[in-house]
Amino acid sequence: MGALREVEASFVVPGPAGVAIRDRLRVSDADAAVLTEVGVYLGSLAAGDLTERSRQGLGHDAAGWAVRKRELTGKSSARWAGSITKASHDQWALARRGQAAHMAWLRRQITSIEARLARPLGAKADRRAGLVRGYGSRGEWHAKSRRLQMLKARLAGVEADWAAGRVRVVRGGKRLANTRHHLAAAGLDEHAWRQHWQAQRMFLTADGESGKRFGNETIRVTDTGRLSVKLPAPLAHLANAPHGRYVLDAPVAFRHRGQEWLDRITVNRAVAYRIHHDTGRGRWYITASWQRAAAPALPLEAALARGVVGVDMNDDHLAAWHLDVHGNPVGEPQRFFYDLTGTAQHRDAQLRHALSRLLHHTRRCGAAAIAIEDLDFSDGTSREQHGRNKRFRRLISRFPTAKLKARLVSMAAEQDVAVVAVDPAYTSRWGAQHWQKPLTTPRRTISRHDAASIAIGRRALGHPIRRRTTPPPSHQSDGAGHRTVQARPEIRRREETRPHLPGPRTGCAPPGSGAKAGDQDIQHRSGCPAEHGSWQQDSLPLSL
Length: 544
What we know:
- This protein is of the alpha+beta class.
- It has helices spanning about 30-55, 60-75, 80-115, 140-165, 175-180, 185, 190-200, 260-265, 300-305, 345-365, 385, 390-400, 400-415, 425-440, 450-460, and strands at about 10, 20-25, 205, 220, 225-230, 245, 270-280, 285-290, 310-315, 315-325, 330-335, 370-375, 420.
- Helix 14 (about 425-440) crosses helix 15.
């Protein structure tokens, strides 16, 4: 058996730092026309500002920011200019983080291919020596050597962009831009694609400002649900209210977290709004978002005081099992299925439904924590990691680990349920080894994923995954010492020999008690009446 890697300590995942809620806007044709004209105009300003910000690169400073904002103020307003420049900064920073992640991925791929090219053809992996397996054929070796040169060229180009501060950004999305050249495959015509493209490039986002009326001066939603937009200076002729504002006929009523939003705008705290158009459904939406004060993370011991629900994430379901504080599975295993095929909206709805059922099950069990694996499949989707297993590589590529964890943390925070992240090392293997067979009965079949959920929960609780240590080689009693690891590390005398206490569990009784304590004549003991019966031979004398 090769060396095992060190298992990281479990920790409580901090709660979300922001809130976002959405409501549909049932706008009229006149309101839709005004919103489209304003969004397209501000979108053109945002595109020009992003171009200027990308051109400045690493040489950007506060003075350059002030110049850009001053130019945009004359074309729109001071608050619209602030929102546009902030969005440009955020987009440039996101692109830089993407560059850093892409460089790290390229370096990992190059290192992996170089290690396998250095091995002989057909060589097997040696984990003890830290050697990877070699390629299976000369043709594969040659193809990988060509791919190595291609990856190195790509890495050189990305590193040059990183050093110069250049980023590659497409407003509206690179995928939608490429769809323009494949309209038949996407099932769109040029007019439909143009509507999608225009909707994605519109800019109707306004940052909130504390102390201002209802928390936002640019896009304002009152406590009665009345929505109004501050129009840019060139479009002031479209206003239907004083001070260059346009009031929409559609009312706003946030159903989800509506009271929290109302409490916030009543005291004029900052709330950011975004109005966007879903061309596929032909609907307009408004999204309100704000920041929350960072709450201190719950201590791990307090989160696990009432047990935990271990969850194993899979491609089509969540396997969950409730464990008590001692690490023992309670009740029956639960499986919450979902379907990750279809559109992004369908997958998102499937995940929300499965997580809602998981949280309801946790509340019914009385637990206050959910234990999940701290998975990251970003480095495991290449052929160098999983060979020719294309099905498995496709599976882990489409599995939304980051989205699932982020949504679980957000939904669990509303239910006062803590999320504990554990190291995923060996949970499936050891869970199947120690828990799958003992818990399987003629009427209950335990899967490998159910056993893995127990392993995840026990690791979160601080217990070893294995049920018992190896018994003594000579016999299975406690004569050779303590052989159970069920007790927690802080329990005193956990490594000592268990005392042989009289009782029904050990099958013995103290002297003078028990079911046959009053009838001892049947036993051949010294002093019993049965010893002097007529049928019993007397003992021989020791001497004559």
